[in-house]
């Protein structure tokens, strides 16, 4: 079987050398789209003939298979496969719902999917000769191009035989033809893909991911052509995968989580070289994975952000040194850092003053000093500064943010006043956290991260609007659930909206105890809300609440964040991924922390260590978070999970009357050899419950 496949694969390769090269550019601002191969580069299509209708039903096919299974006579089934896959004409005839109905709607591909699924579900269980004839038919189909290739391609793409490396040459050419289709055809494919069942959709994604991974790192290189002869394989597969990703993104809820599109094999490639190539060539004809950021995991994107940040830090420090040397001034090594000195009692005002005064140094490595305290910042004080500052700013009494209990998230206050410098401070804090690889416990709704990437790169023109994201009623539901429910009822109301609601395109908002009117459109106070215009009203009201009413506050926040994080790497991120980079994951797996723990002068079988883990695993979530904060300076889990913390427990040879001590800059817990589990629990609970300014080094 494999020899036969190799023979026809070589034949296919020689016959298809005239295929147009794939164009690999993807417009970054429209990530769900794929570019078009120029018309002049494409071969002329053969006109589609009139297709007869083969009226075999799914039930008839399944009955035929069942009969063959019992009798052992597979000839009728073989004949069906041989005739069906013998040519594009027969393929279309077998699976098309109606013989000559046009397949030019995004709602319906015209394919009898029930029969197609049944045929493919059985294929791998048929005799080898039957499977060979299907592959031979696929080759014959690929040797000619038809105007309606998108329909046939959709049918061929779901063939389960392409899960084997022996068929990868055929699969690659199929992907090449699909990737080379015009953008209008890609639009149809995207909408047809979204109608696949979740199981079949995920199978397609997995098959393409396996194809890419195997081509990158083949288990048996001799089973595949040399990379030099098939460098187009991965670009073609990635482009087809981007169509599935686009289909997934236009469905609510998505068919698959966006993480299913991560190819974890790429975590082990030289992704920085890929990133630099993308930086140099942009979205030109030179393929890079960064053109298709959905395929890169958050781990890769975080690493790119970190290394990009490190390079900017080094560049900033080098420039400072050069300036000092050129002026023949004494070089103070502290100039290489962003040194923040604050008093605990004036934490917010001191931090704002320091960051404002040292705005030019924001891209240097951060070091924090608490005035009057002897602590040397090796990372722990920086973490504590972030934690305390965020807690104080987000306290509802401070007035900058409002808290929603239902979604357990914060939103920007619309009545803070004209001075938005503190909002810029919060944005800068988030940027510094990402820049310095520190996770924060900031509970913003997803809408904030959508706005933060609108646009993903801060504009040069200060008058360019920022943060004006296209938000929906679903976004409002997480921020102002009562208003969102009211608007949803308005949309679904079956009576006379104008007479029963008596509303206009004028809304009211309270600011410092004063009710102020706002028109959603010119003359809004005179325009009634009716059954015909209520969708427009809801759209404008949501835009007002989430964009316009807080524009000054959010613009300051946006510019604060982008004053630190102005890397092109932000263009690679989804809003959800920005949230993970800023906040880490709130879900704790203390078992994973235990498995990855390291020990110094202890072993994992030591009685003290066993007692420690028994106590920790029995802690409620609140105390587990306190322990994590006590030992690492943050109660959130970084992108790489618990193993990335490099958590270490060291023996502290002192009296057992001592409390545990932590070195947050090293994620290290120093634990005396307590004599009982009860004593350990008591001392540990006291330590982690009184951590701020005590026991943290």
Automatic annotation (TrEMBL):
<dbReference type="GO" id="GO:0000209">
    <property type="term" value="P:protein polyubiquitination"/>
</dbReference>
<dbReference type="GO" id="GO:0061630">
    <property type="term" value="F:ubiquitin protein ligase activity"/>
</dbReference>
<dbReference type="InterPro" id="IPR044611">
    <property type="entry name" value="E3A/B/C-like"/>
</dbReference>
<dbReference type="InterPro" id="IPR035983">
    <property type="entry name" value="Hect_E3_ubiquitin_ligase"/>
</dbReference>
<feature type="domain" description="HECT">
    <location>
        <begin position="358"/>
        <end position="697"/>
    </location>
</feature>
<feature type="active site" description="Glycyl thioester intermediate">
    <location>
        <position position="665"/>
    </location>
</feature>
<protein>
    <recommendedName>
        <fullName>HECT-type E3 ubiquitin transferase</fullName>
        <ecNumber>2.3.2.26</ecNumber>
    </recommendedName>
</protein>
<dbReference type="Pfam" id="PF00632">
    <property type="entry name" value="HECT"/>
</dbReference>
<dbReference type="InterPro" id="IPR000569">
    <property type="entry name" value="HECT_dom"/>
</dbReference>
<keyword id="KW-0808">Transferase</keyword>
<keyword id="KW-0833">Ubl conjugation pathway</keyword>
